[in-house]
Amino acid sequence: MPDSKTPVRVAVVGAGYFGSFHYDAWSRMPEVELVGICTRSATRAGPLAEQYGNPGKPLPVFHDAAVLALHIAPDIVDITAPPETHLDLIRALVPRVGHIICQKPFCGGVEGARQAIELCNQHGTRIAVHEDIRFQPWYREIRRLLDAGTLGDLYQVTFRLRPGDGQGPEAYLDRQPYFQKMPRLLVHETAIHWIDTFRYLLGEATGVFARLSRLNPVIAGEDAGLILFDFENGTRGLFDGNRLSDHIAENRRRTMGELTIEGSAATLRLDGDARLWLRHFGTNDESEHAYDWHDHLFGGDCVYACNRHIFEAWRQGHDAETEATAYIRNQIIQEAVYESAESGQYMVV
Has residue 2 been placed in a domain? Predict the structure, then answer.
């Protein structure tokens, strides 16, 4: 990474729905210079190149990641392309790029992730996964309250995923149409976020038990399910996901659902409008816990927060929270969830 006086050169691979949030995030970091785009879609690349380039000088657009790396020498490449492209992109980039951020589902699964990590190790390249849900401001505040002991001894965390976007033949087509054809949907694409977030809040998981189902016949994968978690510290977790049902919220994509954490001293509740509610044990009065957050684009500006965290950690020579070598544990747990659902057995992880 260059010294603190030199802008860090960042290129982004991908120009899809979620990739646009990454361009926005990098463009708001004064220490960063966006230097290029790599995508197969000239239609999508054009507006992004104009928007995030300089007046009269749009960002250069490439269709080959190796060519991008050779010609513009970025310090960081941020991969926002689909998971089936991740491993080939990493192969093309590692000889010439020292730092890579990659979207989830990371390399499509555990085996691809292991290959990517090995490739990066061989070339001395750092790689982290863009796992942004743990960076949503309400989860950072919840973690602060847990660390302060506000809830006492912890008993259980429950998250009810209810985005309401999975009904009917048009499900997902307006935003992420590839969801309809994914052979694994609810856990691979969505619950993986809360596998990571539960671990961020409660520590390491030790076992899982799952029941998964498909409610909408037009999609290929599962869209509802229950996952039970055991954690090393004795707490338990429940992920209760249903993409067809909704929840009370001004914007149902803000929190995607509702979370409750129960402890010996208090219960904490996250609602669909990102408000936190605290009720002390033995009382019937629930009061709002105020905290600061920024309502920008997706999930309380969590894309910016995640990329900023990784950027700062690397610039200081530290590991990021979502370094790929740590993140792969989420994918191992994910595979155990699917194995449990298929076998009907509790899986030790």
Answer: no
